[in-house]
Amino acid sequence: MASPESQPRFGHSVKCLLSEKVGSCSVDTIALTRQVLKGSRSQELLSQAARNMVIQEDAILHSEDSLRKMSIITTHLQYQQEAIQKNVEHSKNLQDQLFHLLK
Amino acid sequence: MAATGDAAAAMDSISKAPTAQSAALNPTVGGGAGRQAAAPEAAAESPAAAPRKPGGNSDGGVETAEEAVEPAEPDINELCSDMFEKMAIFLQGELTATCEDYCLLENMNKLTSLKYMEMKDISINISRNLQDLNNKYASLQPYLDQINQIEEQVSALEQAAYKLDAYSKKLEARFKKLEKR
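Output (C-alpha cells, whole complex):
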C-alpha cells in the first residue's frame, strides 16, 4: 500500500524513519480497533436497545400497578362473597315463614 | 513498493551494523546538509556493504563516508515498553467500554425478566382467586333462586294485605251504616 507516509523520504535519518513508522503503525492499530468496533454495529444496537428499554419500562410499571389493583379488588370481592354467604343462609327460614303465612 | 524497499534496506543497515552506530558518535549534529546528503548514499550503500567498518574507508583510493547518526538514548527500551503498555491499555479501554455497555444491557434485561416473573406470580394468584370466586358464586345460585321466590311471595303477601285492608274498610263502612239505622 503506497501511501504518502510510506513514500521514501530522502534526507531523513533512519531513526526518524523508524519513529515515523512506529507512529504510523500505532495509528493504524488504533484505526483498526475503531473500525472493528464500528463494524460490529454495537453502538447502533445498544442505542436501539436503550430506546426500547425506556419505552418498555413505562409499560411494565403501569402493568404492575394495574395487576396490584386487580389483586386488591379480588380480595375485596372475596370479602363480599363471604358476607353474602353468611346472610343467604337465613333465607331458608324466611321462605318457610312466608310459605306458612300465605297458606 | 520501491520506496518501502529503500526504507527497509535502511532499517536493515541499522540492525546489521550496530557497531557502526556506536562508532558514529562523533559530533556531526551540526552537519544537517551533510547528513541529508549522506543518508541516501548510506541507504544505497547498505545492501552492498553490510559489515560497515567505522571511519572513512579508502579502498583503492575511493573514500567512503558513513551516515552520522545521533547517539542512542540509554532508556530507549524503557520508553518503548512504556509506549506499548500504554497502547495496550488504550486499546483495551476502547474495547472494554463496549463490553461494559453490553454488561449493563444484560443486567437491565435480568432485572426486567425478574419484574416479569413477579407480574406472572401476581397474575397466577389473581387467576386462582377469581376461579375460586366464580365457583363460590356458582354455589350461591340456589340461594339466589330462593331470594327470588321470597321476593315473589312477599309480593303476593303484599297483595293479600291490600285486599284485607280494603275488605276491612268495607266492613267498617257497613257497620257504621247499620249502627245509624
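Residues 97 and 103 of chain A are 10 Å apart (CA to CA).
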